[in-house]
Every structure is written in structure tokens, then in C-alpha cells.
Amino acid sequence: MTPSDMHTPVPFSQSTRLQLVDEQGKRHHDYLDATGRGAISRPSGKPLRALSLLLSGAGQPCALNRYQMALVAAHGGCILEPVAQGQQAYRPLYQDVEYSQRFQQMPQGCDQLVMAHNHELLLIAVRDRRPAMDFLADGGLEPVPFEEGAGRVHRGFYQAAKLIYERVSACLNNGFAAHKVLMCGHGVSGAIALILSQMLRHRDVQLYTYGAPRAGDATFVRAAQSLVHERMVHHHDPLPSLPGSWMYTRLSAYHGHATLGFNHAVPELGVFVAGLSALTGELYQHHGALCHFMPLTSGQKGSHLMWAPASDIVTQHAVSLALYEHVRDRPECDGLVESLIGPWKSLGVDSYVASSWDVLQRSQAALKARQPELAETEVQAIDLAFEHIAQQLRSCYQAVVSAVYADPLEQQRMINLLMRELSRLHITRQRLYDLRFKVPNVAEVYGDCVMRAGADAHV
Description:
Elements: E1 7-9, E2 20-21, E3 27-28, E4 31-33, E5 49-53, H1 63-75, E6 94-98, E7 104-105, E8 113-117, E9 121-126, H2 133-136, E10 143-145, E11 152-154, H3 155-172, E12 180-186, H4 188-199, E13 205-210, H5 218-223, E14 228-234, E15 259-261, E16 271-273, E17 289-295, E18 304-307, H6 312-315, H7 317-329, H8 338-341, H9 349-369, H10 376-402, H11 408-435, H12 442-446, H13 449-455
Parallel strand pairs: 9-12, 12-13, 13-14, 14-17
Antiparallel strand pairs: 1-4, 2-3, 5-6, 7-8, 8-9, 10-11, 15-16, 17-18
Helix pairs in contact: 1-9, 3-4, 10-11
């Protein structure tokens, strides 16, 4: 199903009416039309009107913004208003507004930056087109001090953020100081956007990143705690696991108990690799609220669960699977793990658009039915897989404890890694249980769009 096939209902009340126009120019009330088509209209006696990208400016992120900002990260300013074009799998959602309140692209943009504004929001899309390995190749991982605040950051991401900071800062100081800022970026552009957001930390910024690698150290992350940041990660994307200390370990370190393939587990939860994050002192850290898109084996094809698991089995799946398969198929190889990274491909932004759209649909259906987003059968299937995994982790733990290691320190390290993963798995299962009773509210799905629609209901 695509947006052109669906009307997205909003609970009816006199204060939650939203007017949009479909491709035939018909007006619709009390729902969001997702055709992505329309034209400027001027009803008799009314001000000139236009269709403009629908975004919430509320402080709380919402499912609508996750989808819309994924499209902005993918397509930039060309989706601000509907244009005549061929059929697309996913189309933006638009709101019928006064012509003066539409989103307008700004000339201050450049090849790496798209900026647009309406009467209350400033939209920024970081779109650096360089491949990830240009930033993550050997020699580019040494952090540098973050001059605008605390901590250290990745040199390459920082330099890229500095190149566009002056344009953004000048824009904000030229009539847009009161505007809320919505910023997005995919892949390395997400890491650049994070640093840029912290450079603008005295502004009201809401950040959406998709498959972004780590960009700063623990001090930088702590200093940026007040930044509202939704960090989207797809289950099959290896880039969010980079950079990490594991890149400089040898492949031989992942033989034996360090890699574990699970029996009776779903493919999406099939492997564990110990040591993909250091027990202490990991240099680069993630910032933001994790929104992990995990494919569901039950239900409709392409269905995803968006949640915040703690287990490396879930969050590090893409890198774990690649490393596990290499060690299994080529046990004689013993170089640095870093040598494997080049051929790994990060997921394109279209994968995040698809996942965000699926999650928006799931949220809308749950809101309409006033039921949890995750069905009981889905909870049970995932939890059963976790139970099988926990049993096998405990068996591996017992085997390591009773084994005779040539290096006692390595044995203790492996024990600690398995204990940590068992603890993280327990936390992950608790978060899964909590989803059984979590019913989304209107703000979590649509943000403040419904409230703003009330003011326009008379138009």
C-alpha cells in the first residue's frame, strides 16, 4: 500500500479539522490526504492558497515528522510543494494553507544544504553526497576538540559542519531567529547534522537522523543532552555501528565463543558477536533517542517494529551478521576487522522512507482503533525468540566459565561481555513487554498538526 492508496484519519472534533486538496482538486475534511498532488487554489472570497509540506513544530517528535523528514532527507527541496511527476512509491503529505504560509526554498542553500521556511518553521536538510568511507577511512577517525562547546568530535564530520554553519547562522540571524528549526540528514549527513545542531544549541532545534554513524565522544554527547534528536536506525544498516574500537581488533579474536549463531531463532535475531562495543572507554558514542526499525517476520510483508532495544543482538545485527559469516566462511583470515568495512554498503535513504511510512501506518491504525501498535501475537513471537537466545547465551556463559583459557584476562573479558549482553537482553525484553500496553496518542502520531488545523477549520 502506498500513500496514494490511503486516507489517514484524524479523530473528529471541531478542533481537529484539517483541509487538504487531492489531485482532482476536491476538498477533504477530518483526514490527511496522501495523494501528494494538487494545485494552488483560490476559492471565491478567500485568500490565495497553496499546498505545503505538512510538518509538526511541536517539541515532541511524532510519527508524521519521522516520515516527512525522511522524504526531505531523500529528496530535498523538490518536495516542498506538489509537482506533476510520475508515480512514486512514497509521497509527501501536504496541508492546504494560505499562500504566504507555504514552505519556500531559500537561496542560501548549497550542494550540501537545503533550507526552506514557512511562517513558523525553518527546515534544514544536510545532504553531503560523499560516501561514508571518505570519512571513515584509516587516518580520519582521530577526534578533535569541539570548539563551540564541550567534548571531542570526528574530524571529517566537524569540518563538513563548519563549511555550512556560516550559511545557516547568517540565515537564522536575518529574520528567522524566532523560528523553530527542523533538521535532518541521512548517513554521514546525519552525523554532520548532529554536530551542526550542537553548534546551534542556543536555538530551538529538533533533529531527525537516518542511519547516522557516531560523531562525538561521551563528553560531547552529555553536553548535547538538551537537543531533541530522533535517531532512526534500520536493522540491516551497518553504518550506525561505525566508528568503533572493534574496527581495530583482529579477526582471530572472534573465533570460538566470541561469535555465536543461535538455534531456533528468527533470522533477524540469529547471531551475537561479543565485543562490538568496549566494556569501558568506547571513544565514539551515539546521541539521541534510538528509533530502531526491526522487520517483523509475522504479519504483512515489510512490516516493521520501531522501538529502543538495548541488546547488541538487535542493535548491532548488520555488523554482527557480516562479521559472523566472514569468520565462519573464511576462518583462515586474520587481518584487522577494518579491512572488511569497505565492501559493506549502508542502506539508502529510501529504506528509511519505507520503514518510516510503515511505522506511520501502524501508528495511525493503532490510534484509530485505540489499541497498542504491536499485536499480542507479535509480542509473543519476539519474546519466544528472545527466550531461546537467553538460554543459549547462558549455556555459552557456563562454557566460558568452565573452559581453560591460555589468557585468564581474555576469559574474564568474555565472561563480562556475556554478562552484559544477558543484562541488556533482559532490559530489551522489558521494553518489549511495555509495548504490549502502549496506545499512541494524537500528539505522538501527528504532533501539533491537529491542533493547528483547528485554527484553520473555518477557512
